[in-house]
Design brief:
162 residues, alpha+beta, Sulfite Oxidase, Chain A, domain 2, five-stranded mixed β-sheet, 5 helices, 28% helix
Length: 162
């Protein structure tokens, strides 16, 4: 009997960890933005600080999900305004050190968001979180290209404004 109980608890552990890991610490820094910014270098954000900014949603299909997903987060243009970004490009780095360079003009023209929720749930590392850059692919089919897909960095940890 003990073996069955231990196996059952072992089976449940990943579900418990992934569903609550982000929501437990609203004040932990999960994003650092540095470089050409006027808000103090570096600017650090927790989920709580990001949620205090105006929220935006994008409902779209992506190559990484089944069907349409409703993403919630902050417009990157709003985040850049908040920190006084003055560069022409943003170098985004993921937890695994993947890097993508995104023209700052994308933030105004394409309106991507820095998503922290998908379908109402906080993004976990397992789900490409805690932060994921999402473009409105379904609203702009011309964005369904490798260029924009490569700019959709998941597990974002830092942004360097150049």
């Amino acid at each position: 009997m003990f073996r069955n109980l231990a196996a059952f608890l072992f089976f449940l552990m990943p579900f418990c960890l992934t569903s609550t890991a982000i929501s437990l610490d609203q004040d932990k820094t999960i994003l650092t933005v540095s470089g050409k910014i006027s808000a103090g270098d570096p600017a650090q954000f927790s989920i709580g600080k990001l949620e205090a900014l105006p929220r935006s949603t994008i409902e779209t299909a992506t190559p990484w999900h089944d069907g349409r997903v409703t993403f919630e987060g902050v417009l990157l243009s709003d985040l850049m305004s908040q920190i006084g970004a003055e560069g022409t490009r943003a170098q985004v780095t993921a937890l695994n050190d993947y890097r993508a360079v995104i023209p700052m003009s994308d933030f105004q023209s394409s309106k991507p968001i820095l998503a922290y929720k998908a379908n109402g749930q906080y993004l976990t590392i397992r789900d490409k979180g805690p932060l994921f850059i999402i473009y409105p692919y379904d609203d702009h089919p011309e964005m369904k290209t490798e260029i924009y897909y490569s700019r959709s960095v998941w597990q974002v940890r830092s942004i360097l404004i150049e």
